[in-house]
Each structure stands twice: as structure tokens, then as C-alpha cells.
Design brief:
9 helices, globular, 281 residues, single chain, 2 domains, 35% helix, alpha/beta, Rossmann fold, Phosphoadenosine phosphosulfate reductase
Length: 281
Amino acid sequence: MESPTTITPAPAEPLKSFSFGGGVQSMTALVLAARGELDYRTFIMANVGDDSENPATLTYLQHYAIPYAQAHGLELVVLDRVMKRTKEKRTLFQDLTRPGSRSLKIPVRMSNGAPGTRSCTAQFKIKVVGDELRRRGATADRPATVGIGISLDEIARANNRRCEPHERIEYPLLERGMRRIDCARIIRSAGLPIPPKSSCWFCPFHRPETWHEMRRTEPELFERACQLEDLLNARRDELGKDHVYLTRFNRPLREAIPDGVDVLFDTDDIDTGCDSGWCMT
């Protein structure tokens, strides 16, 4: 009698996902994956909060990105930050405004114009994606591959990446020598509009023209940013600390970005601050 044959199951394929930011480069990767030109089937977006993300990004996500992913059999997961102890969802705006909070997780400009330290990207983007990949089985011995949407004209942002021990980072758009203009062409070829630049609406790394555009076209959102800056400085006053600002001009946002004034493109103020590769892509 022959002994039964033992079949050893094949090891599971290592996880592979793309860190989806909701912007031009992320949508380019989604389109390329739909065409079979990128080997990603899972896209993961860490949402810093519906009250914190650029509202236009959230609108694009619901109207275009998610339906496009579903239509092409791709998984697009949107994750919130969930506190481990209380299991409650926590947004970046809540962190900044909750009573008694002394934490400044965003890179506000200090009184000397230099950006302060920040933890927003690490806590609300990198860690959220990392936790999800660990939940799906990624380990230090079998790390997940995480694609980051950086194009050739932003190659400096690909330096000094921070990631979890169970992740391995790659840059598929850089590997293909793609620039932002190439990304826009690919998105349009799929019949999709170009997405807005993804970021928090109160991000201190906004360029002056971004703030001017917000004041002109979204005055209520601009006023909310001013009120946030006011709140942060009221708390700084209570602590006896210098004021901080959402621009590098060392004065309140309402004064730094006057109403009815446009600015020319400022080549010295490129948005290089969110250089983790996880924001604004």
C-alpha cells in the first residue's frame, strides 16, 4: 500500500500595495495598474480625517478614484486612524483642536520662520498604512512592498524614506522615468479629470499662491485656517510661548495673505516640506 503523498502548500505571495494619496501620481499608478502596466492590485489611503483632508481630494476620491478602482477590479482601501486603547477614530484636526492639547503635530512656522517639528505624516499616514499591512500578514522576515507615487520632477523626495520594519519601499513612477506632465496625460487618457493636489487644507507647507487661491475661491475654508492659527496661538499665549504661523511670513495668515492680492509663482517656496513620500501624491 502506497503511503499518502504529503503536499506542502506553496508559501503565500508577499504583500504588495500602493500608498494612495489621492493626487496626480497616485491616480496615475491606479490607471497604470488598471491597464496591467503596474503590478499592484491593492491601493491603501490613510485618511487624516474628513475634517482635515483637502475637501476637493475627498470629492475626487468618491466621484472618480473609488468608482474607477471598482470598475477595474482593484482594491482601494481608505483607512482612518483608530486609537488602540479606546478604538475611537481620531483626525488630525481633532488632535490640534481638542481641549487641553499642547501638541503641534503639523510643521507650523516658528517665530524665526523655520518650520517646527512634525509628527502628522508619521502618525496619520505611515503608521496607519504600516498597521494595515501588518494586519494583512507583513512581517520583518516577509516584508510588504509599498509603492510610493513620486515622479521624476520630485526625485529629491525619494531620499531618506521612513517606513516600518515590515515594509520595503519602491518608486514605480521613478523607475519608469515619469514626470508630472506624463502623469497628467495618462490620467486624461483614461477619461478622468486631473485630481487636485492632495494635502491637509491647513498645511503650513502650502505655497503662498495656494493660500491666495484658497482665500479667493474658498473663503470659508481660508477663514477656518485663520481660526485654527488663532487657536494655536491663544494656547501658546497661555503657555508663555512665541506665536507660530501657517506661513513663513512671521505674521498672522489674514495679514500674510491679503484679500484681493495675487502672487506670481514663487520658485523659492516649492512644496518640499511633506517629503516623506506619503503626503500629497
